[in-house]
Design goal:
single chain, two-stranded antiparallel ribbon, Serine Threonine Protein Phosphatase 5, Tetratricopeptide repeat, elongated, about 475 residues
Length: about 475
């Protein structure tokens, strides 16, 4: 098939297939045959010989007056072909015979681009000394170093960086976008190489640093730090420090790394508050081990424990309580009443660490037990009863916890009461309690249970005897 295709161009075929004797014969027969090109792509015998790495044939053609810089339809020279296909000896020969290392193809790419694209580091070494402008860009706005980086040719990039090429040029002026593209392709080692070069060439790293924090690229932050860049800076856009921004963006590993590599005195005054608020257990642990004050309040009067409770971060609450964080009166009722994932577990931790089981939420007059019944939580109700919470406390509607249990059909709370009070028999003045009327509906616990919660009524009716 190949022979049939090449029959109109016997010299081209001979040069591609390395038939040296045939090529010599054809040239002797007609010296002008060296100038023959393919009809469609305008490729000469030198293009074919160079593309296949045939040094002797390239020499033969050049010695027979074939222009070493002749271009095909894409404006590629034989040097482009040899550079792309990785033939060092052909490249050396062509350069010795005055091939133009700055020749541009249709994409405005020199042979250096071809070698960089294919990852031939030895050829890049041969070409860089002959290239007048290592920072030239192709039509698409990429330099040779960018082409090599995109294709993950680390050795080529190292060679070009050693010649102090500009990396933030052309399309790569959007530097963090370029790094992001490389990371999306899985080229992590390449990103580390470029970021290290960025630091050591004093190119300014804050843009990279804050981009890495916002995108949670911990390896980029580590690379910046290892290369000598400061990672404790202030972001112009948000006004936040790197640590604060990392917590705000949920980049906890980065926040932990910043804490681990800096003295606590270098951190913001509210470092512990921020870590507690977002729920970073490791950051809280690092700060506490660095002797951060566990009960200090921020400018809003909030403590780290209060912020952790507000956001139901159980692990942080445990850590702070173990370090003797102060429990205020409202913390328990807030933790129970907020009723979101993790809040009840926070309430249990507070009770286990000495919170007042009779704490009251002043705006409504509801006790912690009222709230535990309202949210129908078995363990919390049980723990409060074990800690001595009162069943007789009346809120501002005149209701006891039992009123809410009856109206709300609180099955889990009822089970906790039955188990902890031996079927309500251990509650003093039970008959008086079940006949107490609320100020809202004028109903007693007994009548409410009869109307809304028959199972509860069947238990209570045994106490309604003379």
């Amino acid at each position: 098939m190949l022979l049939r295709c090449m029959r109109p161009y016997p010299l081209l075929w001979a040069c591609e297939e390395n038939f040296e004797e045939l090529a010599v014969h054809l040239i002797k027969k007609d010296p002008n045959v060296v100038n023959v090109t393919t009809k469609k792509y305008k490729e000469t015998a030198l293009h074919f010989a160079a593309a296949q790495g045939h040094v002797k044939l390239c020499t033969l053609l050049i010695e027979n007056k074939l222009d070493v810089n002749v271009q095909n339809v894409h404006n590629q020279t034989a040097l482009h072909k040899a550079a792309y296909n990785g033939y060092d000896e052909v490249v050396k020969l062509l350069l010795e015979r005055q091939a133009n290392a700055s020749a541009l193809d249709n994409l405005q790419q020199t042979p250096l681009f071809s070698a960089a694209l294919a990852g031939h580091s030895s050829i890049v070494q041969l070409l860089i000394g002959k290239h007048p402008n290592l920072n030239s860009l192709n039509k698409r706005g990429w330099g040779a170093v960018h082409i090599a980086a995109i294709n993950n040719h680390t050795d080529v990039v190292r060679i070009l960086l050693s010649r102090k090429v500009k990396i933030k040029s052309g399309k790569a002026k959007r530097w963090t976008g370029f790094l992001g593209m490389l990371l999306n392709r899985g080229h992590r080692e390449m990103v580390e190489l470029l970021v290290t070069y960025e630091v050591r060439s004093n190119a300014g790293t804050n843009e990279t640093l804050f981009w890495a924090i916002r995108r949670n690229h911990i390896e980029v932050v580590r690379t910046l730090h290892r290369a000598g860049a400061s990672i404790n800076e202030t972001d112009d856009r948000s006004g936040l420090s790197t640590y604060q921004l990392a917590l705000k963006e949920g980049s906890f590993k980065i926040a932990e790394y910043i804490l681990a590599t800096h003295n606590s005195s270098e951190m913001p005054e509210d470092a512990l508050h921020m870590a507690a608020e977002v729920g970073s257990v490791t950051c809280v642990s690092i700060l506490l081990n660095s002797k951060a004050e566990v009960n200090v309040k921020n400018h809003k009067g909030e403590s780290p424990l209060g912020l952790a409770l507000k956001n139901s971060h159980v692990g942080v609450v445990q850590l702070l309580l173990e370090k003797s964080a102060r429990i205020t009166e409202n913390m328990l009722v807030y933790a129970i009443g907020v009723n979101k994932p993790g809040s009840i577990d926070c309430a249990k931790e507070l009770l286990l660490h000495g919170a007042n089981p009779s704490a009251v939420y002043e705006p409504t007059g509801q006790s912690a037990l009222h709230l535990a019944v309202l949210v129908n939580h078995y363990e919390c109700t049980k723990l409060l009863l074990q800690r001595g919470a009162s069943c007789h406390h009346i809120d501002k509607r005149g209701r006891t916890p039992l009123h809410y249990m009856a109206v709300g059909r609180c099955t889990y709370a009822l089970r906790a009461f039955v188990e902890e009070t031996v079927g309500f028999r251990n509650i003093r003045n039970m008959k008086q309690l079940i006949h107490m009327k609320d100020q809202y509906l004028g109903e007693t616990v007994l009548s409410s249970a009869q109307s809304y919660y028959p199972e509860f009524y069947n238990i209570l009716k045994h106490f309604d005897v003379n």
